[in-house]
Amino acid sequence: MAERTAVRRRPREATGSHLRLVRADAVRPIPSVAALARRDLTLLLVPTALLTVIGLVMILSAGSISAVEGYGTSFWYFNRQTVYAAVGLTGLVVIARVPIAFWRRAAIPLLLALVPVMLLTLHSDVGSSLYGASRWIDLGPVTLQPAEFAKLLTICAAAAILSRPWKRLDRPRDLLLPLGPIVGVVAGVVLLQRDLGTAVLICGSVLLVLFAAGVRFRYLFWTSLAGLAAAAYFIFGTAYRRTRFVEAWLNWKLDPSGAGWQLRQGLIALGSGGWLGVGLGNSRQKWDYLPNAHSDFVFAVLGEELGLIGALAVLSLFGLLLYAGIRIAVHSSDPFGRLLAAGIAGWIGLQTLVNLGAVTGLLPITGVPLPFLSFGGTALVVTLAGIGVMASVALEGTRSERRRTGERSVRGSGS
Fold first, then answer.
1. With contact defined as beta carbons under 8 Å apart, do 380 and 364 qualify?
2. Given CB 3.0 to 4.6 Å as the disulfide criterion, which of 78, 144, 316, 393 pairs with 137?
3. What is the pLDDT of residues 48-80, one digit of tens each?
4. Integer angstrom CA distances of residue 331 from 34, 112, 194, 208, 384
């Protein structure tokens, strides 16, 4: 009997010795909150800096010809964008130090205060129009595009509303009030500016925030279906949008020298680049062949000059940036911060997708700029501000840890 007992114990002893084969020093320690924040910030800020620099270089290259023709110097667009980049990077650093509790309290009041400013673009003495859209406020030496601020503030407002503890996301009433009217007003004002692309981006970004919040799929499905129906109404209900959709996108080959000219020249630019490109600054399409070469279609010039390898490198930087945003959202312990980071990352990713889809002919041309790369001061400043908000979310855990450490030290000294 003793022998049988000993035999039965051997597998147990062998199992224990097998587990002891894992050395204690080989087990990875759980990274601290500060270490996670440093990694997330590195993944966020490195591609942001590189994309900003690449954007400045491409604006100098793609916009040099039109700048000489319009302003007498090839550095005009580059100089202006450099100033905006400096302002945006300064704002990024400042906003990164602002606790996210500020955005929870101030997002809705700031957004409501922005609506009258957006309406000023419709006034003939204040607003300025381009390509049929009234998006800008003319302030003399600079122009301001309020709808760009609306993108970021709408995401902040949606995150603040959906993260409230008394909100039940399985009840449509809690989802619609007050989020529905707020988004409806903002999108409605943008549509009055004749800017359907920005309105779609705002509504799409809010839809991504709803997805990140865990809203039921059937609610997202019906909301998306209603949004597509509304977009179809505004496209086919307006003559110039219908022409742009049908003749400049679906059937652009029928009129390649007219409505399909921009898409055709963009595809020629992309196809001419090959693997390695024709060389930085050597684009042929920017010589008045490709409209908006320095703004909406800057990626076409990038593909022509840097080739497929350069285009894939830029796309990899965008992918790394979105990955950083998802990591920050996952690592956030605050529901508001989680939705905030997810919404901003979704907005940048969605806008990138819409622009690249237009340049490659996969989506209609909407006039939506490519983040960081397209010329546009307000767009660049607001995008960098959004990166600053994500950085603030990444640092929020470190701030909370410091507060807890300070409270413990105060209690210890008091005892």
1. no
2. 144
3. 999 999 999 999 999 999 999 989 999 999 999
4. 11, 30, 39, 18, 21
With residue 245 as reference, give the H or E element that holds it.
helix 239-245
Do 293 and 286 meet the contact criterion of CB atoms below 8 Å apart?
Answer: yes
Q: Are 105 and 115 in contact (CB under 8 A)?
A: no
Tokens linked to 101: 């509790």
Q: Which three-class secondary structure state does DSSP give residue 208?
A: helix
CA distances from 122 to 23, 24, 116 (A): 70, 68, 10
Calculate the CA 288 to chain-centre distance.
30
Q: Which two tokens stand for residue 177?
A: 């009030």
pLDDT tens for residues 26-54?
A: 556 667 778 888 899 999 999 999 999 99
Q: Which residue has the tokens 């980071």?
A: 341
Residue 297, both tokens = 């279609």
Residues in contact with 286: Cβ distance below 8 Å, sequence separation at least 6, in sequence order: 61, 62, 63, 64, 65, 66, 293, 294, 301
SS3 of residue 256 by DSSP: coil
**First-to-last C-alpha distance (Å) of the chain:** 61
Residue 67, CA atoms < 13 Å, CB-side half-sphere = 19
Whole-number Å distance between alpha carbons of 407 and 273: 60
